[in-house]
Amino acid sequence: MTMRTQISRVSGPPSLCGVLLFASLCLCGAPSVSAQQWPTEYPPRPLPAHDVSFPPYEVRTLPNGLQVVVVLHHEQPAVSMRLLIRAGGSSDPKDKLGLARLTASVLDQGTTTKSAEELADAIDFIGGAESTNAGTDLSQLSMIVMKDSFDVGMRMLSDMARHPAFSPSEIDRQRQQVLSGLQVSLEDPDFVANAVFDRLVYGFHPYGMPQTGTPASISAITRDDLVAFHRRFFSANNAILAIVGDVTADEAFNEATKVFGDWEKRDVPPPVFLEPPDPTRRLIVVNKPDAVQTEVRVGHIGVPRKSPDYMALNLAIRILGGEGSNRLHQVLRTERGLTYGAQAQFDTLKWAGDIEAETNTRSEATGEVLRLIVDEFWRLQRERVGERELADAKAYLTGSFPLTIETPDEIALQVLNNVFYEIPLSELQNFRERVNAVTVDDIQRVARAYLKPDRLSVVLVGNAAAFRSQLPGVGFGQFETIELGNLDLTAANFRHDKPAAGGGRLQPIAYQTPAPMFSKPPIVPEEGEKAKALLDRVVVAKGGLETLRAVKTVTVLMTAPTTAPDGRALQVETKTYLQYPGHVRVEVKLPTTTVQQVYDGERGWIRDANGVHDATAPMLRNFEMGFKRDTVSLLVAAEAGTAHPRLLPDVKDDAGRRYQALELSGQGLDPLVLSIDPESGLIAKQTFVAGPGQPIIEEQFADYRAIDGVQVPFTTTVLVGGQRLGERHISDIKINAPIDPALFKRPGH
């Protein structure tokens, strides 16, 4: 049994308000700790949010229609130049999908005056860096140089944008790279799921078409197509130039006028698009029989970037599944153990956008995962979000924003985005204020206005035979199944009418989905009898089910080496009182005081030299999860069916010793893996992740001794992220000794 909390990276006198070194005992394990090895008092208060001042900027339009934005940023002697063209994959002709990206890929592969090699040498000579790419709505070229090479870099940027060579050999080389990438991508469940979802949501709007192209469309593109695309869209009045860095406004505008002032102005035809279809309830299953996991995509059409509800809806989707909150991750991973991660995306483009929840899961859990995702869409629409949830999402947005404007190149990107989407640049100045102005009422309003839980588009890519029967039971009695080899993203029914040479029906490529948590070979679960048989063996080795069920209390004394702030080596003594199903008291003797942590199954408190304090929410969470990971509780729950076993492939340690692997997961229990000695049946190691973004924690157990019929490891070695943190040793332990109930009562209550 294992109870644990984590230490915070803080300084100050000893206390448990920031979560102490030892949370508790273990009958089969030791408390997990972070890299800091000294108990501390309170975590420091968050630093006050410092003002984020966007650098001074100026916008001018040259006589030829070129928009030029200059941002002064003198922290580095560098200048970033980004040239944006208002044409990307959405401008591809229907029979030439991938044209924009192929065009962009050869812009830096030689000009009419320099070969690809000469251009690369010239950029290297001045210590610069360049790149070209095409997105959905735009294409862009970028150049970063030191200030003394500003004029040279500007001329090279102009040369690439205005005078590309479109060398046939370079076009063919890039084409082969694209085709090779497509060959792999069209067998990748993640890529296929995203591509089918876009097609399902946007229909035959250009946003729904495969902008990477298809093998047939890429093969059909000629040099003349690239030249025509360039001639049609690459003109001064269809471009935006951002110059950011260590220059004055006059220097920047003068150089832009000198280099780009003679760029031709042309009539650019406005885009004519089909409107995306209204949200429609439709489920498409792409069958990949060799898959051991299912890629899941759920969502529908959203709003364009310029929408006045962008900020509120952005925060709403972050609460659903984004940074700072993420209900989907909480339900699917933390509470149910059905996936290693889940998220929701809010994509906004020039003309439309989409809302998309995504995850992957083992095949047999597909139906349950789909039902839970749909439930969370309904919940966000029907229920008001909490103030805390909204505050966490806001804190992430406002806290991460300064990181997006640290360098000249990052500033240039932000500026171009605002100019392209016709958003006032002043919004970069008041970003924090606009985020913090969103209220709970705003979230409820946009959730009700834009979320359509009854009209969700769903894509499942995996072994259909393993989950097809589950779908009617979760509300999707009607669905379409398409074999991966017959998938056609350009067809109305997503199918090839007949095999077409080079047209996207590819020969299968061996593909394995990695196990995300442990970077081991793919998990091939063997449910049922084999997993249950191994579980039964572990229970017997531990002491037997009746013996484990009879454990009501544990009192344990532990010692562990640690290091004082002054560098002295110390032995810290911890006494833990554990009463099932959910009471724990931990007493830690420090050089100057004794600190107590107490949890009664619902509430927690800490007593230290500064008095008595309520336990924080993270501490309460750690206590709760500690009980769920406690070995006795875990094995009893697994035998009762509330924790679910899966047999995983055997694993080997660094010495080559083989262990059997058993994964346990359940409601409120993240998946953890037990490595089991095949000879004794005892647990040699327990591995888990304590929360989203946390490193892998590994507890290695040794020196098992029988205590009242229960096998207890007296030595535990803890590793976090592969780094050894030390050993814990039990010096005394009593099972089912009476414990005074007063030990779990808060003083004064």
**Which range does the strand content fall in?**
25-35%
> How many discrete structural domains?
3
- Number of strand elements: 25
Major sheet details: 13 strands, antiparallel
What is the tally of helical segments?
A: 21
Overall 3D shape = globular
Query: Averaging pLDDT over every residue, what do you get?
Result: 84
CATH architecture of the largest domain: Clam
Distance between the termini: 29 Å
Oligomeric category: single chain
Helix content: 25-40%
What is the radius of gyration? 30 Å
CATH homologous superfamily title of the largest domain: Lipoprotein localisation LolA/LolB/LppX
List low-pLDDT spans: 1-26, 28-46, 499-527
CATH topology of the largest domain: outer membrane lipoprotein receptor (LolB), chain A
Indicate the CATH class of the largest domain: Mainly Beta
Major β-sheet strand ordering: 18-17-16-15-14-13-25-24-23-22-21-20-19
Structural class call reads alpha+beta
Detailed description of the structure:
With 749 residues, the protein is α+β, with helices and mostly antiparallel strands. It folds into 3 domains: 57-260, Metalloenzyme, LuxS/M16 peptidase-like (Cytochrome Bc1 Complex, Chain A, domain 1); 282-478, Metalloenzyme, LuxS/M16 peptidase-like (Cytochrome Bc1 Complex, Chain A, domain 1, 2-Layer Sandwich); 529-744, outer membrane lipoprotein receptor (LolB), chain A. It contains 21 helices and 25 strands. It has a 13-stranded antiparallel β-sheet. Strands 1-2-6-3-5-4 form a 6-stranded mixed β-sheet, sandwiched between helices. Helix 3 runs parallel beside helix 8 (249-260).
